[in-house]
């Protein structure tokens, strides 16, 4: 028992910064949810956009990891990063009710990276210093903000082209698009004119979110792959040198 207590104390001593960071992140996300519920007077739209955001976040992480793996040949994804993406996506989806897409996208990236990397430290994954975590968080936030602005017009044009050229993609753009249908239901939920949402609402939101962020996720995965490739190359060089 004494040995277990000593190990627990040592673990807390080594990981206290990450433990506090994870706790603070959870408090911030809960605060965002409470603020949103109090603003609209109902939790239904918050649940809808949060669930959609979480699914889109996990899916986006999978796309990025796949692109990165195609570049480096190694799978760098882990369960901690996917939990971070789910929590960040949930918060980002809720923030869409309160702010603009750029702010929501940036916050999603920041929360996902910060939470995921601190969770890795706690659970025995890759150990990162506080500086590395803050650097990665800042980099992912800035990248998300840049790509959400730089690629939004390209994504919009691509969606319009696909909806006109290929029948299966006809709902990617226009008044009957997945995005328009999702936003219409969320608006009605916020206004209180409807009290429940159908599973199709989640489907519409997920397809809309993925189609809008696909280029961003691909670009993010490409940059991640280049960075991981350079890092692995430096590590191998050090090993060979020794």
Question: How is this structure best summarized?
Answer:
The protein is mostly helical and 242 residues long.
Description of the molecule:
There is one protein chain. The protein is mainly alpha-helical. 83% of the residues lie in helices and 0% in strands. The chain is built from 8 helices and no strands. It has helices spanning 2-40, 44-72, 79-95, 101-123, 130-150, 152-165, 178-191, 199-241. Helix 4 (101-123) packs antiparallel against helix 5 (130-150). It is globular and about 65 Å long. The model is unreliable at 234-242 (pLDDT under 50).
Which features characterize this protein?
242 residues; mainly alpha; 8 helices; 83% helix; disordered C terminus
Assembly level: single chain
The helix/strand series, from N terminus to C terminus, equals HHHHHHHH
What does the overall shape look like? globular
> Which regions contain 5 or more consecutive residues with pLDDT less than 50?
234-242
Give the helices and strands, then pairings:
Layout: H1 2-40, H2 44-72, H3 79-95, H4 101-123, H5 130-150, H6 152-165, H7 178-191, H8 199-241
